[in-house]
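Before relying on records like the one below, remember that each one covers exactly one chain. Contacts with other chains, cofactors or solvent are not represented anywhere in the record.
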Amino acid sequence: MLNLERLRTLDALARHGSVSGAADGLHVTTSAVSQQMAKLEREVGQPLLARNGRGVRLTDAGRLLADHAARIISQVEQAQADVEAQRGCAVGELRIGAFPTAMRGLLPRALSALRTGHPDLRVRVREQEPEESMAAVVRGDLDMALAIDWHNKRMPVPAELTRTHLLDDSVDIAVPVGHRLAERATISLAEFGDDEWISWNEGQFCHEWLVFTLRGTGIEPRIAHIAEEHHTQLAFVEAGLGVCVAPKLGRGPVPAGVRLLPVSDAVRRHVYAVWRADADRRPSIRAAVDALRATAAELQHA
């Protein structure tokens, strides 16, 4: 009997083309990928990987089984969707991943509405960065993810996923009260050439966006401090240690020593939900999308 998780590992290897790529996509170690593949090779009784220089490639048997694995994974999703659709109501468990500001500013109200309208649906939420949560949806660890990209830098969405827009999130720049621009009604990013920034972790999509955007205005970014949480970034701003991006969604109270300045060229984030295309018929997915859209509409008009 073929193990579904090992087939997911083989599918990831086929899609990413390397053990390290598969490990990153599955958010496991390269050792775990190698162990899963060794077990799968014992199950099928023939080699699925062959050495290729310093890396590996799929053997003919590996490519054949990988084609089947992709179809099997899709069929498992379709089977779950069909069983739910046959019952005609949102039941069971729904696993959602969401980035931090959506966890604070969007999900609580949406989940409350879901609980009221669908009391037999159990929702489990995990805070994750968009790249991680979308990968988890692809491999089946999550059913849905809330993700973001920016008006001038889009995040690639895997072909296996369906995407729906929820809202546009406006963004201000947070500066200390004594900053030279603190009393301005609006500002341009090009005016921050001499400032130090508090940013997200290097490698995260939002950090890459900030660097990309500032360079687009002719500024070479001066990243002085790294902090994950927006509230931590604002605390550094209040202490006069730099400036930061301050999205509206999930913002919460702003420290007294911080001023929020609207950007004249309308910096904004796009917030959206993604799920596997082959799970589209699941009533739980449709119910969650409806609740998220309704909550997002309320936030946009607040």
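The first strand starts at residue 49 and ends at 52.
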